[in-house]
Amino acid sequence: MHPELFHFHLFGLDQTIYTYAFCIVVGTLIAALFTKWRAKKELERKVLSNHFFYLIFIVGFIGGKLFFYLENPAYYWAHPDRLGHNFSGGFVFYGSFISIIPFLLWYFNKHKWPVWPMLDILAFTTLIVHTIGRMGCFFGGCCYGKPTDGFTGMIFPKTNGVAVHPTQLYEVSALLIIIFILYQIKKRQQFEGQIFMLYLMLYAVARNIIELFRGDTRGFVIDGILSHSQFIGILIFMIAAFYYQKLKSKQLKFISYENN
């Protein structure tokens, strides 16, 4: 593993660039360029302001850290000095995601951007950031799995020499498969919002399966049975399935009206 990418000396201080943080920044930059390109190509709208991406990054950072602390609130309440000790890591994806969604809805409505088409584009954007971010988890040695004797087993710094499931790579593989599936569906998309809702459902299923192999310290809704991420994933899947049917029915009614 390579949790620290490189060191350098600047202004009399030793600086460290962490691989996880580097991957997040690179993923964010690539995703921002992709979003601007697709929004201009698909919607023929003005280019998104850079402030939009700065705000998303800030909101996502706060949400991801907050949910991370909420996984073990008693510990951080008793040890507030530890709050800043995991700056280079310690994020919960669903925390960032749940925090960003209300911001997106507010921003798109305020600036008169079409909500559902933009969310369809941002489904791919999120997958880009998430995939590169999970590679950062792999290099950082966090988010690893349970012990295994299988051929996929790997040893991470915090596993005390025990081979475990590389769940970071499992998730990267799942995310790449989701990207491929959504790309194929995009070619024959039936209604606005379809890609975004399918993304939510597909990732919820993938995440719930991957959580079965996770072995690092996790927060649980039902101890040892249902993790926070699984619980949130189940809720998101049900909400997304509801809106998928609602948006699809709305589109079918519109097509029927047009044909009449």
Question: Would you give an account of this structure?
Answer:
This protein is mainly alpha-helical and 260 residues long. It has one domain (4-259). It is built from eight helices and six strands. A two-stranded antiparallel sheet has the order 1-2. A hairpin with a 7-residue loop joins β3 (154-155) and β4 (163-164). The longest helix is centred in the last third of the chain and has 32 residues, at 228-259. It is globular, with a radius of gyration of 20 Å. The model has no long low-confidence stretch (mean pLDDT 86).
Which features characterize this protein?
two-stranded antiparallel ribbon, single chain, 260 residues, 6 strands
Q: Could you give the topology of this structure?
A:
Blueprint: E1 4-10, E2 13-18, H1 19-43, H2 50-70, H3 73-78, H4 93-110, H5 115-140, E3 154-155, E4 163-164, H6 167-186, H7 194-211, E5 220-222, E6 226-227, H8 228-259
Antiparallel strand pairs: 1-2, 3-4, 5-6
Number of DSSP strand runs? 6
Strand order of the largest sheet: 1-2
Shape: globular
Run of helices and strands? EEHHHHHEEHHEEH
What separation lies between the terminal Cα atoms?
62 Å
Q: What's the gyration radius in Å?
A: 20 Å
Tally of alpha and pi helices: 8
- Unreliable spans: none
Estimated helix fraction: 55-70%
| Oligomer type | single chain
Strand content: 5-15%
Total individual domains: 1
Q: How would a textbook summarize the main sheet?
A: 2 strands, antiparallel
Mean pLDDT over the full residue set: 86
Q: Structural class from helices and strands?
A: mainly alpha
